[in-house]
Amino acid sequence: MSELGSDPRAAARAIDAMRRGWPVTVAGDDGAIRLLAIESADRDRLATFDPDGQAGVLLSPSRATTLKLGNQRAAGDMARPVLLTRTPWLDFETAVALADPQMDLATPFKGPFPATPLGPVTAAEAALELARRAGMLPAFFLLPATDNADVTVADVTEFAAPANLAIASRARLPVAAAETAEIVAFRTPDDPTDHVALLIGTPDGRSPLVRLHSECLTGDVLRSLKCDCGPQLDAALAAIAASGWGVLLYLRQEGRGIGLINKLRAYALQDQGFDTVDANLRLGFAVDSRDFGVAARMLALLNIDTVRLLTNNPAKVAGLEAAGIVVAERVPHIVASNPHNHDYLATKRDRTGHQL
Ligand SMILES: Nc1nc2c(ncn2[C@@H]2O[C@H](COP(=O)(O)OP(=O)(O)OP(=O)(O)O)[C@@H](O)[C@H]2O)c(=O)[nH]1
Ligand SMILES: [Zn+2]
Fold first, then answer.
1. 232 is in an annotated binding site
2. Which residues of the chain have pLDDT under 50?
3. What pLDDT score does 77 carry?
4. Residue 138 has what DSSP assignment?
5. Ligand 1 pocket check for 280: Cβ under 6 Å
6. Which CATH code is given to the segment(s) 162-253+290-352?
7. What is the CATH number of domain 8-158?
8. Is the CB of 60 under 6 A from ligand 1?
C-alpha cells in the first residue's frame, strides 16, 4: 500500500490474474472474499480453488434480477450483488450457465438456487467492477478469504482515477477533416488504456466545439451499420473543423464501458431479440458503465474549462458538469439512420434518454 492508503497497481495485477484464471482475494472494510472468475475457470481450476465443493456463486445485481433471483434479497437490496449457496446441482457447467446469458433461452432453468447473506458487500462490488475492467463476465465462485488480500476496495476505487491522468505525448496529425490537427495522448500509471484528444483549428477566445466519442471498434473501424458511431465520428470531425476551433476526445470506453468482447456478447443477445439495454442487463452490467470524469480531466489538462458539447445524450452534459466543466451549449449531433440501426436509435431515444 502507498502512503495514500491505496495501490492502484494492485487492481491492475488483480485484473491480470482474473483474465488468466487465477484466484484473487479482495478485502473491504466489511470483510474479505476469495474469488475465481467463472469465465476463465475450468473444472480443474475450480477443484484446486475449492477442493471441498463449498464455493458459492456471486452474481451481479442485474444478472440476479434477470435470473429472477433478486427476490431472495431483502427489500431495498435490489442494487446489491447476490451470493448463491453451493448445492450438489450447482456444478461447473451450471455456474457457467448462470454467468453467461447466451444460453438463457435454450436451457431450461434448473435450481432451486437459494441465496445466502453476502457479508462483504463492498468487496463483492469491487470484484464485479474488476471483472468489468477485465472485459469479463461479472460472475465468480466465492469462498471466505483465509489469506492476505491481493487487492482492496480502495485500490479498485483508485484504479484509473482521472486525477492520475497526465499528457504523455503530443504531435501534429494531419487528418482528412483537418490537415493541421494535433493529437494529444493521455495515460494513467496503472491502466494500459490510453485516451486521445484531436485538437482542430486555432483557439479564438470562443468556447471550443467538443465531442466526447466513446470507442466503437465495430462502428469506427469496420463501419458497422448496427450503431451510429461511424457516421457520428465523421460528422463530429467535420463540424469541429467547420467551426474553426474544437476538440474530439476519443475515449477508450468500448461498448459503453464493458469492453469489446462483452459488447459482442450483447450483440449476440440482440440477435436473439433483446434490445441494447436489456442485453447489457442480462449480461450483468449497468446500461451504461461510462464515467465522463476522465473526459473532464483531459479537457482540464488542455486548459479548457468551458465547452459547446456535440451530443444527444444529457448524461454526458451532466457528467462533464459534475466534474467541473461548464457546458455552455449542447449542440445536437444527429446523423442519418439506416435499416440496421433504426431500432437501436429508437431504444436510445425511448430508454436511455437520448434526445433524438
Ligand atoms: N454495450 C453496448 N455498447 C454499445 C452498443 N452499441 C453501441 N455501443 C457503444 O456505445 C458507445 C456509443 O454510445 P451511444 O449510446 O451510441 O451514444 P452516446 O455516446 O451515449 O450519445 P451521443 O453523444 O448522443 O452519441 C460506444 O462505446 C459503442 O461501442 C450495444 O448494443 N451495446
Ligand atoms: Zn458503435
1. yes
2. 1-3
3. 64
4. S
5. yes
6. 3.40.50.10990
7. 3.90.870.10
8. no
